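Possible regression after last week's pipeline update?

I re-ran a chain I had predicted before the update to compare outputs. Posting the input and the new output here so someone can diff against the archived version. Not blocking, just want to make sure nothing changed silently.
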Amino acid sequence: MDMKKFILLTAVLAILTSCGSKERGELVGVQGKKWHPEKPYGMELIPGGAFIMGKADDDLAGVNDAPAKTVTVRAIYMDATEITNSEYRQFVNWVRDSIVRMKLAVLADEVGKIPEDGGIGEYAFKDADTANMSVYEQYMFDNYTGLGPTGYEGRKINKDVDLIFDTSEYPDEYYTEVMDTMYLPMEEAYNGQRTWDVTKFKFQYSYMDIQEAARNRGVKRKDVIIKEEIEVYPDTTVWIRDFAYSYNEPMHNDYFWHDAYSDYPVVGVTWAQAKAFCEWRTINKNSYQKSKKGAAMVNTFRLPSEAEWEYAARGGLQAATYPWGGPYTKSDRGCFMANFKPVRGDYAADQALYTVEAKSYEPNDYNLYNMAGNVSEWVNASYDPSSYEYSSSINPSVNDRDNKRKVVRGGSWKDVAYFLQVSSRDYEYADSARSYIGFRTVQDYMGTAVTKNGKQ
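New output (post-update):
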């Protein structure tokens, strides 16, 4: 090619490049996908803003660990209600089914069964047939599968085939063998009924301790990745243990599983189980998002900080005693505004003996139900009487991993009115489960444009 042709070709390419480019040589930044905020199902948007957090000076006892302090929190989405039994059962069933599917796939692999063989073979790992893998799946299978203690890490279980729970329809002896391991032994059954061995319902997840990574810049990434394994089934015995010399067996037997209580708040969950639920909710939603081509991943669901919880509970009302304002617990028609213990020994004066449905009573101005009463709620904070003194005034959060005393807020069906106040603080140990403690989740709002100062 002579020099004239080369110069002409270069000029043509330059023209084509400049014409086909939207940048025109300017610094316009990388253009990503357009972001359209989507309100998560069952949640309400809580606009960010400033508020006075803590107790008034006339509460001499409470002001010691909750002195008044002006803080600012960012915008979040928050569950309109406490997490219900039905919603938590979705988590429990997902964990149970995942474990069953993994056990079926492992046994199918051990006995050399594939989908074409039928029976347990239908539940074989999806990579049992390597012929239909994409290039990426083949690469991951060749390089990462089995790099773990069991040898089955990284292999995909088959969720396309329904599990069979009716014993009369079990497809073969291998399937029967796996299902038998998920129930309590026969010697522990009574009245001809076998029940699930709920100690097998364990959820595994990992997360990065960003706070630790930020404080120790030299730390390796793998050293701040924390792996957890949590039994997810709620402790239904709390209905017995929390109240000595009291007949609460019906609540122990039916409250979590029976459909009559599906819309009631889940109880008997520890702080660690509430955290695990948040992780699962994120995984579950993002698994769905991945199945939709082009759908954006959602950010993490989590427990609210103490400041976020109080800000949301106030519903935009400054200096209010309760989520509805106050200072009274009855409406102008003489009706109680929440589910609590209004009279000594009389739990039913508010028309509820135990908990009530999660969407009961009137919501506050952020459309949140039962931010006072019904069940107390775990928050992502460690209890320290002096934490208000040293915490930041912007998005304050104090959560020490070594401090096992975790804050609960809002009061419950068995508490007196004082603990229903939006500024009251209490705590329980992270590994404790109670018949009067539940939780709700939040998700960070992407962006900072939604702000609102509380009503004066």
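Follow-up from reviewer: compared with the archived run. Residues 84 and 118 are 38 Å apart (CA to CA). Marking as no regression found.
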